[in-house]
Specification:
Elements: H1 7-19, H2 43-52, E1 60-63, E2 75-78, H3 84-103, H4 116-127, H5 153-162, E3 171-174, E4 186-189, H6 191-195, E5 203-206, E6 209-212, H7 213-220, H8 224-233, H9 238-248
Antiparallel strand pairs: 1-2, 3-4, 5-6
Length: 249
């Protein structure tokens, strides 16, 4: 039996009264054409919306328009709490959170935002030991800063991203691979740019700057494979290897 005071219980009962004909409440809901929006058929989507819209244990889900469907624009949380001041505070907090989300362009639940997968992956590789790649992030002490964590973490991250050139197709890249995810150490980069900043990408001194071998090969207009073979396999000095390639052409 689902705990009707939990988010999961509320979702369970909402679905039953709209779709399960044997439910005693079906005649007042599903039988009258009231349905649950497609987004909320997924319990986790409903859970995210509930947490972002003031849910507290013991609250009940209300439809603003009693003839309307169960969907974000027509629902809110009511309560049987005797202390109405507590309710008012909770609802005001939910409204403020909603406004903060809209200010940075988050519409609906945050997990539907196109940037959320980047945010979630960033936290996962730093905080979940069971995930592949954790040893290169959380296992090395790489962390996500407080500003980008917690209740307002995604809102803060989204605001920073909007002001720092994010667009679809770009990945978040740490400037210093030994430091964590924080505004001063992050930027957005294309996959090609990001690959140049990997820890296993050995850099060489070229004209006073540290550069990956692939970049040096492009500047000198020589074949990267040939340059790599001479420098890494044969142990030749960088300048010597470049001249050797050009002399053989």
């Amino acid at each position: 039996m689902a705990d009707l005071n939990s988010i999961g219980g509320i979702h369970y009962e909402m679905m039953r009264r709209c779709y399960y004909e044997k439910n005693v409440a079906y005649k007042d809901y599903g039988a009258k054409g009231i349905v649950v929006c497609e987004e909320w058929h997924e319990r986790e989507n409903f859970r995210s919306w509930a947490k972002e819209n003031g849910y507290q244990k013991g609250m009940r889900l209300e439809r603003i328009d009693g003839k309307g469907n169960y969907e974000p624009s027509n629902c809110r949380f009511g309560t049987k709490y005797k202390d109405r001041k507590v309710v008012k505070t909770i609802l005001e907090r939910a409204e403020k959170n909603k406004l903060k989300k809209l200010e940075v362009g988050i519409v609906g639940t945050k997990n539907k935002d196109p940037l959320y997968s980047t945010y979630n992956a960033m936290h996962t590789r730093c905080e979940n030991p069971k995930k592949e790649g954790y040893e290169n992030y959380g296992g090395r002490g790489i962390k996500v800063c407080k500003e980008w964590s917690g209740v307002d973490g995604f809102i803060n991250f989204k605001k920073w991203a909007n002001n720092n050139g994010w667009c679809k197709g770009l990945s978040i890249d740490r400037i210093d691979n030994d430091k964590g995810y924080e505004p001063s150490n992050c930027r957005f980069a294309t996959p090609a740019e990001q690959s140049l900043n990997r820890r296993n990408n050995i850099k060489y001194n070229y004209c006073g700057s540290e550069m990956p071998l692939s970049v040096i090969a492009k500047i000198e207009n020589v074949d990267y494979g040939k340059l790599r073979m001479r420098v890494k396999d044969k142990g030749m000095e960088l300048r010597e290897a470049i001249m050797d390639i050009k002399g053989a052409e």
